[in-house]
Amino acid sequence: MNTDDKNHVTANARRQSPNSDNVTARPLGQASRLWGGRFEKSTDAMINDFQASIDFDKRMYREDIEGSTAHAKMLAAQGIISDDDANKICAGLQKIREQIDAGEFEFSVELEDIHMNVEKALTDSIGAAGGRLHTARSRNDQVALDTHLYIRRQVREIQRLIAELQTALVNAAEKNSDVIMPGYTHLQRAQPILLAHHLLAYFSMLQRDFERFNGVYQRADIMPLGAGALAGTTLPIDREFVARELNFNAIYSNSLDAVSDRDYLLEFLAAASILMVHLSRFSEEIILWCSREFSFVELDDAHCTGSSMMPQKKNPDVPELVRGKTGRVIGHLTALLTTVKALPLAYNKDLQEDKEGVFDALDTVKFSLAVFAQIIDGMKIRRNNMRRAVEEDFSNATDLADYLVKKNLPFRQAHEVAGKLVHYCIERGVYLKDLSLTDFKKFSPLFDADIHDAIKPETCVAARNSLGGTSPQQVAAQISAARTIIDTQRKI
User: Fold this and answer.
1) Does residue 186 carry a catalytic annotation?
2) Relative to the CA of 421, which of 114, 175, 234, 384 has its CA 20 to 30 Å away?
3) How do residues 77-94 score in pLDDT, each as one tens digit?
């Protein structure tokens, strides 16, 4: 996670302390503002604070400078500004980037956003040439460009973290490929499965997440610059030039759509929400598995905390926090959907509300993925407890019925026989494995001496060799396919 992504100021912090985190409220005369020519009064200080976005959109400074550099080169190539001015602009922008990278740049709340902070610093540094940078563009298409560039970069980072978590899952599956555990439905023991099969189910969920983010990247990979405020520009710009400079594969064909589209952010938040739901489901299972009632796994001490009162406690705080933060990301999706649901074309100030939620969701998703991979890597599997769980239950009852089906008894009758045998065991406080052949034959003459082998957990698991099943052969094939998928994803 990048330093600027980690250290951004949240919305609450901004409203409580607008001057924090290298953001100052130095006074500017109205004429000094880059848009102040039409105004006679200075903006109220409270209004400055309320509408400023610099404390959170400053994290897009790389994208803002990258987009401005491409724009300046295009203006020069089209003869709209001189080559000398373009060179000064590009050099000045690079210097500003270096200052921000080094933490030496002073941001101003009164300059509102990253765009105006950079442009004002540029003009102060290089003079009149800096004032030519904004030719043929608006902050409307500029912020859209920055956000597209930023989301493209962040999507690839999220996909890298997804692949890392998938790798941890595959490693754990391969390392514990012979561990048998109960599979559950309704949180009741259902049928024996391999632990590896269970872990690989989450691999598959994460794979769909990875592919969903490919779609997010595709929708973010459209270049909006050149749309101006809403209607384009009268100047002879070359949008294709800028798209090539910034490696965009497509350009918005409608200027109104270019400055008002936030679908790609909604898609990002939707994909992020589904991803967090997957992590939350896994978190819930890990929390259950850590409990004394299950005792299937133990998390590494480095990934847990204790109690200030109860000395014996080892709390699975990390999966609990991931589970809790899922609601936070879902909330950001709901908030942005609500923000855009009734906005007329084209740009409206409401759209400034898109960034805080998106940035927070990005940070939450990236951190959750990173810590989850560590949890899986450090998790200790209590294989004996898992084995005991499948031996001291009736999860082999389906296999008992299947045994009779293979002897040509209709399944419904076989199901009834198996159910009666389970009831018989419960009344006597025993399990199917404890019954004698004589006991079995009381319920059906089709039972033979091989019935005990047929209902062993290993036999039950091995017999489920249908495509995608839990048999060792099928799970080995799933692990091999997963390794291939991860190798492919790392090339993106």
Assistant:
1) yes
2) 384
3) 999 999 999 999 999 999
